[in-house]
Fold this protein.
Amino acid sequence: MSIAFLATALIAVATPGTGVVYTLSAALSRGRRASVVAAAGCTLGIVPHVVTTITGLAALLHASALAFQVLKYLGVGYLLWMAWATLRDREAIVVRADGAPRSAVKVIVTGVLINILNPKLTVFFLAFLPQFVDADAPGALPRMLELSGVFMLLTFVVFVAYGVLAAAVRTHVLSRPRVMAWIRRVFAVSFVALGARLALT
């Protein structure tokens, strides 16, 4: 495993995006356990991108402007829906003293959808993995799976770290509803900004 791969993957994972915002939201609203579950969901959402890249479907998305645009705007629409839902539902991001859990399945499904509807991940794998894999080598497929697995592991570890840090400060906002109202607005704006950036890709 090259240092160049690890460094590049770590930078890509640690850069705040939709998965990070969602994990932070889960941490602040439901605590550490929810943030870990959210991180797991976001990580699982990478699997379809790995599969499409390895099977060559990513090349089709890359070559077909229509296919890419459809996937891209599905992602934009979902992010805008997340922003609207965050502002509309006052229960979307609310700190509870008892840490009442949201269904783990719902948290995971939302995390998976967030990353499935992110075409930048597919493009990232298409442009990123080939730089570290010799396509003519007999072990090219296992190598791609290995690198993808490392990328997913880094994603999970970094997202959990984000979530744990956010969960550590949630007790400081238990009695500050106005703070949570502003946090909800910040998350909504973040989803809109990420959607706009994706639309301009």
Q: What stands out?
A: Confidence is low (pLDDT under 50) at residues 91-100. The radius of gyration is 18 Å. Residues 140-168 form the longest helix (29 residues).
